[in-house]
Write a structure and sequence with these properties.
The protein is an alpha/beta fold. The protein is built from 15 helices and 19 strands. Bound molecules: nicotinamide-adenine-dinucleotide.
Length: 469
């Protein structure tokens, strides 16, 4: 059986407090790889390797750091097909989207290779003349990255690439549900010449907690559920450690009466159901202007029927399984609380859930408030844009939102009033360009942003310098 390994100082190593099997969610009898459960000892070794590498890496000139990131992009590109297949088999992402994720990884690395040669800091006029005053943005040191399984290559990279570009070294603790993908990612980093600069400790929450608490780890960047994020924020605050937490959503699509209803239905269906609704930006609520609700629901049913449900390895598949049995059971349990307005058949073996639209609940109901992370869309109605915005904002989350309309005034009102970090018009709630800021409002985020230039803010600290004659 394949064994995923830790990657410490450029060597692939086994070890830890036991192991678990990573299953193919479409065929759970098939084991993708055995994942070692790293613990404090593995975190200690990785932190040591990252600390040792930091001394040299922070002094490595930007253009030379850029070369390493370009080389990493090339190493990923060279194994693109294999990596996409690993994503599809380990986390059940349809192969078309898995290929897209690999392409995004290459784009992220190339983008941050460019960032590694851009200015970091500025000259600030002094109160007195003849004074040279400037700000330097220095790396933090060793940064700990804790990531979920749903973008098993892209999320580790959209953290690691900006961290490395500005001179930090990294210890990644990937999800225990995607350890094989993390193993392959580590192999590509080693092929690109990265050793102690990028380390991976496989494992579950115990390894994550050890990383958070390690004294040599200066900052934690986390993506995952709001429950884990809250625990990590609390632990980091107590240690006065810099942190960012990017968490879940209850993302909304609003459909106004003037929208192209067929187009809107395709956008909402795709945003809700593709990859079985397991994107943090997936559409999980739709609010439809009441006057067109009947017509829209007909279009939505047709659009959902057009999304093939099945094996992630089939090119045509749009909806695969959910990640594991626990997730499947949680989603099926929640569905019983609403009225099913539409549901399509899914395979009976594997962790599949039928793409389902549920209604008959009000905006305060569990189905309209809590993230299910499955192919389930909660259907709500509102009489006006004002009422729709009120419903849309009635959630503790604020990650992404979309509006379907042909009216520019409605679009501008929505952009002004919606409480979400990523806001789209006539597009679905998922998908943000890899060079644009990514993150949420309210309970979806600790308030920083990832991707794009702004990602460098988290991975640097300011030093204000004044040189007098
Ligand atoms: P999760 O919170 O269960 O796990 C995330 C990571 O935290 C894993 O690596 C896990 O091992 C680790 N972990 C668990 N307990 C820990 C602890 N006590 N201390 C330290 N680390 C710990 O989340 P998941 O199921 O892997 O991912 C799904 C969630 O991620 C969803 O809520 C989704 O919305 C969210 N997500 C958010 C974004 C975003 O950018 N906002 C992107 C993707 C996914």
């Amino acid at each position: 059986m394949r064994e995923a390994l830790h990657s410490i100082g450029g060597s692939l190593l086994s070890g830890g407090a036991g192991c678990l099997d990573s299953l193919n969610p479409a065929e759970p009898t098939s084991i993708v790889a055995r994942i070692p459960l790293g613990a404090a000892a593995e975190v200690e070794k990785a932190a040591e390797a990252a600390s040792a590498a930091f001394g040299t890496w922070r002094k490595t000139a930007g253009p030379a750091r850029a070369e390493r990131l370009y080389a990493w992009a090339d190493a990923i590109q060279a194994r693109a097909a294999e990596l996409a297949e690993a994503i599809a088999t380990e986390v059940g992402k349809p192969i078309g989207e898995a290929k897209g994720e690999v392409g995004r990884c290459v784009a992220i690395l190339r983008y941050y290779a460019g960032e590694a040669v851009r200015p970091l800091g500025e000259v600030i006029p002094g109160l007195a003349s003849g004074v040279l005053q400037y700000s330097l943005r220095e790396p933090l040191g060793v940064v700990g990255l804790i990531t979920p399984w749903n973008f098993p290559l892209a999320i580790p990279l959209w953290k690691a690439a900006p961290a490395l570009a500005v001179g930090n070294t990294v210890v990644l603790k990937p999800s225990e549900n995607s350890g094989w993908c993390a193993h392959l990612l580590a192999e590509t980093a080693i092929a690109a010449g990265l050793k102690g600069e990028f380390n991976v400790v496989q494992g579950a929450g115990e390894a994550g907690a050890a990383l958070v608490n390690h004294p040599d780890v200066k900052a934690i960047s986390f993506t995952g559920s709001d429950t884990t994020g809250a625990a990590i924020s609390k632990a980091c605050a107590a240690l006065n450690k810099k942190y960012q937490t990017e968490m879940g959503g209850k993302n909304v699509a609003i459909v106004l009466a003037d929208a192209d209803l067929a187009q809107a239905a395709n956008l909402v269906a795709g945003g809700a159901m593709r990859f079985a609704g397991q994107k943090c930006t997936a559409t999980s609520r739709v609010i439809v202007e009441s006057s067109v609700s009947g017509r829209f629901l007909d279009e939505l049913r047709k659009a959902i029927e057009l999304l093939p449900v099945g094996s992630p390895m089939e090119a045509a598949t749009a909806v695969g399984p959910v990640i594991n049995e626990a997730s499947q059971a949680k989603i099926l349990g929640a569905l019983g609380q609403g009225t099913v307005l539409h549901s399509v058949t899914a395979p009976s073996s594997g962790f599949f859930v039928s793409p389902t639209v549920v209604g008959g609940v009000d905006a305060s109901h569990d189905l309209a408030q809590n993230e299910l992370f499955g192919p389930v869309l909660t259907y709500l109605e509102a009489d006006t844009l004002d009422a729709a915005l009120e419903l849309a904002n009635n959630t503790r989350f604020g990650l992404s939102a979309s509006l379907c309309t042909r009216d520019i005034r409605s679009a501008l009102t929505y952009v002004d009033r919606i409480q979400a970090g990523m806001v789209r018009v006539n597009a679905d709630t998922t998908g943000v360009d890899p060079h644009a800021p990514f993150g949420g409002y309210k309970g979806s985020s600790s308030g920083t942003r990832e991707q794009g230039e702004v990602a460098k803010d988290f991975y640097t600290q300011y030093k204000t310098v004044q040189i007098n004659p």
